[in-house]
Amino acid sequence: MPEGHTIHRLAADHFARFGGRPVRASSPQGKFSDSAALLDGMVLDRVDAHGKHLFLGFDQVGWVHIHLGLFGKLGFGDGKAPPPTDTVRLRLAHPDAYADLRGPTTCALITDGEKGAIHARLGPDPLRPADDPAAAWGRIARSRTTIAALLMDQTVIAGVGNVYRAEVLFRHGIDPYLPGRDLSRAQWDAIWADLAALMREGVRNNRIDTVRPEHEPEAMGRPPRQDDHGGEVYVYRRTGQPCLICADEIRTAGLAARNLFWCPRCQRRPAAG
Ligand SMILES: [Zn+2]
C-alpha cells in the first residue's frame, strides 16, 4: 500500500498536469460512469491529500475521493491518451496529458460535507502543515497499544505506512513494542518532526530514504541497497542483515497485520524502575 508521501505527490502531480483546465472524464470500466459524466468538461481547481486519501476538487461538482487501498494504481501519461483498457475506473485527460486510475478501494464523487467527515475521522498528517501532533499525542499517551501499532492506525496519525513506522522508530531508538503511554511527550514531538521532514523528502524524491548521511553507502563503503522499493533504509526488509549502526541482526515479526522490522540492540526498552 502506498504511504502518505505518495498520495501527496499524486495530488501535486494531478494539479501540475490538469489544474485550472477543463478535463475530459470517463470511466471505461463503467463503475464510475455517472459521476464521470458530471465531471466531464469541468475544471480541476483544487487538490488535497490527507493520509492515504486523495481528493480532486472540481468547482461546482464536488470532490473525487480516491483511496488506492492495496491494489489501486494511478498512472500518468503525456500527450494524447491511447485507447483505455476496460480496467480503468477513471480517466482524466486533455490533449497534453492523461491519468488512469485502476483498482482503487474507493473512487467516489463527494460533497464538501462528506469530505469534512473523512478529515474528521483521520488523525493529523505530518504532511499537512496545519495539522497538530497534539491531537495524536492525546490518543497515544492514554494507550496500552504498542507504538508500532499506533503509528499504523490512521485515526491516530494519518499517512504513516509500514516503511516510515519501522524507520522512524529505529531512528529514535524506540522499542516498537513500547506501549503508547510509556512514550514521553519529547519522544513523540521528535517522532512527529522527523516524520514531517522524512515524508516531505519522500514527496520531493518520490522515494523513501531514511538513512543519515554518515550511514549512506559511500560514507560506510558498503554497496547500495538492492530492493524494488528503492531508497536507503535502516531496517525495513533487512531481516537477518547487520544493523548499520551496531551490526546486530535486524529482526522481523508480524504486528498490526504487517511485518515489523527492528534492531533489538539499538531499539531496547529502558530498564523498568
Ligand atoms: Zn542496531
Which terms summarize this structure?
4-stranded antiparallel sheet; Helicase, Ruva Protein, domain 3; 273 residues; N-terminal domain of MutM-like DNA repair proteins; 10 strands; globular; binds zinc ion; alpha+beta; 30% helix
Secondary-structure blueprint of this entry?
Elements: H1 4-18, E1 24-26, H2 33-39, E2 44-50, E3 53-58, E4 62-67, E5 73-78, E6 88-94, E7 97-102, E8 106-110, H3 112-121, H4 133-140, H5 147-152, H6 162-171, H7 185-205, H8 217-220, E9 251-255, E10 258-262
Antiparallel strand pairs: 1-6, 2-3, 3-4, 4-8, 5-7, 6-7, 9-10
Low-confidence stretches: none
Helix content: 25-40%
Ligands in the model, by name, code or SMILES, are: zinc ion
- Structurally, the number of domains stands at 2
Strand order of the largest sheet: 1-6-7-5
Number of strands: 10
Mean pLDDT: 95
| Share in β-strands | 15-25%
Q: How many helix segments? A: 8
Name of the top-level CATH class of the largest domain:
Mainly Alpha
What is the CATH architecture assignment of the largest domain?
Answer: Orthogonal Bundle
- Biggest sheet descriptor: 4 strands, antiparallel
Provide the gyration radius in Å: 20 Å
Classification by helices and strands: alpha+beta
Question: What is the name of the CATH topology of the largest domain?
Answer: Helicase, Ruva Protein, domain 3
- Give the termini distance in whole angstroms: 40 Å
User: What order do the helices and strands follow?
Assistant: HEHEEEEEEEHHHHHHEE
User: What overall form do the CA principal axes indicate?
Assistant: globular
